[in-house]
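Technical note accompanying the year-one report. For the benefit of new consortium partners, we illustrate the data format agreed upon in the data management plan: each record pairs a sequence with a structure-token string. No post-processing was applied to the example shown here.
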Amino acid sequence: MLPERSGVRDYDIHTLDGGHLLVMLPNAQWISYKQIRGARVKHGELKADIFPNAKDRWTPKTPASFEIIVAKQSTPSDEEIKAAIQTQFGLVLRRQATGTEIQRYLKLTRSSMDLAGNSEGLRQMLVSVLLESDFVYRLELGAGKVDEHGRQRLSPQEAALAISYALGDRGPDAELRKAGAEGRLLTRTDYHREVQRLLANTNYYAGPIDKGISGKNMRSHQTSHPKLVRFFREFFGYPGATKVFKDIERSDGYYQNPSRGTLGSPGFLIKEADRIVDWHLQRDKEVFKNLLTTEAFFVYHNQDNETGRRIIDEWTEAYTKLKDTEWRMDPEGVIEKNRAFLESTQSLRFLGHPKQKREFLRHMYFWGETIGKGRTPFTTPSFAHGYAYHHSTFYNLPPTPGSFRYGRIEQKNFKGLEDVLFWDYPVEQPFLIAKRKGILTHPAWLIAHSSNFHTDPIKRGRWIREKLLAGHVPEVPITVNAQIPEDPDKTLRARVEMVTEKAECWKCHRQMNPLGYPFEIYDDFGRYRLEEPLEHPTQLIARASRKNGSNTYRTRTIHAMGQLEGTGDSTLDGEVMDALDMIDRLARSERVRQSIIRHAFRFFMGRNEMLSDAPALMEADQAYLESGGSFKALVISLLTSDSFIYRKPIAN
């Protein structure tokens, strides 16, 4: 929630501020020059480019109303100037100029032409329109008569912009602009039609961060809608995992921090979380409950389910066909005799070349240890291919052995092998993972809500209190030194309790700590655990025996009991065994559902709720319940509510 003191007050929306003007003025000058350059060259005012690679060789076609003025030797008539003004308003502001604006710009253009001629006078008008405040700023002030509640409905143009930016972070498409121009964007039914249409457009652009949802190697599925996924990204905050630096050695070498422009381990985990969100948004039933309680997860793999199944089938067919040949003693001969078969498959064709003997042998040994022993490659990690998307360790699945214990992202094309040939996880995803329940137990969320070297029950508990239970925790007083004491014999929880359970601290920490302690069943890398290593030199048992390995320390049993309060339901409040128990209860809370809806209101409306927005919030809640937990139904309700359609006039 934004504090009351934040935001801009008494801002003059009718003029550009100095900073914006300095940026926009040269841009407007350049655009206006381009707008009429074609006509000026055509009629001999300017010479065509001498050099074909000249910087400004590209010239758009000059609108007819502009060309008439450029070509005219005498002073243009009022009607010709007015036509040019209306053309520029249509191009820049997507609307017609009002009578007052026509007169103002007519006077400006006339005076400019008297001083500098037709072309330069015209260009001054073009520049001035390009500096209109509603070209730079998106205004939603309402227009027309004030109703009995003191409100004004958004104008069709404002409505088109509001709907488009709410769902796509971009200007209206042609169909939305047409609806506004034709007067088909006035009623709630009109809003419903356009919002529903844009929600059905899964390719509607929503900003660069959404590339993680359907970017390279994970784009083989149809997304629900980028902006909907982005709401949950921002709500849960799991993309923050990239901002938390982790020590690679503490992870036993498998965790890789983002570097050199690459995603690293947290980047891949964020993509996995995106897929979970998108999976449930596509199904669009009981979305909140499913995102909080699902036990089915995606683990990063580089192909879609159908392609993965085909590859596994081809592997199985190849092993069955070749297992009884002399492939160990004469691999080149076996390749040559079976060249036609190998080259007929998409995933094995590269093995049909005699120089691929080493890769062919590696595949045969790998298949012998999986398919040959009744196991399928997508459920048993490969030990022979030397390549791993190594995130199984985040979920405590068996890690992929190799020259390094967990493999490295940098090793990916081991001796030229193609990425698509290898699978360490089930092809059919998502799949069930034990000791996990929803986004709050996803490694991306757990890492994002941790510190560099340990978990953070205070941060995790505060998130639960403020995001799910609609509570508020004050900031740390400036006089408090918020440091966790060192004690080599105690767990992190015990050390946190030492400092936060003092009377002066507990009045705030009681709102957070009991909600964060249940997540101690996961370490700061998001791994499930029963014991916590005491990472202190005095507790060292053995040093790492290899590069990037982790030291071995004495451990203490994890204590994950917590206390849930504030759900508004006495049957849900009370002592909880661990995070899994607490999440089950949170998912059944009406307050949690309504808190998420409140955050959705802020996200799609672009502002905090007020008392007058209570009807819109209640309607959205009802729409969600009546639709069986459809998030799209909730969004449609918000964007067709009075809170979205109407504005209160600004007092002078």
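Partners are asked to follow this layout when depositing records. Residues 1-13, 208-221, 379-391, 398-423 have pLDDT under 50 and may be disordered.
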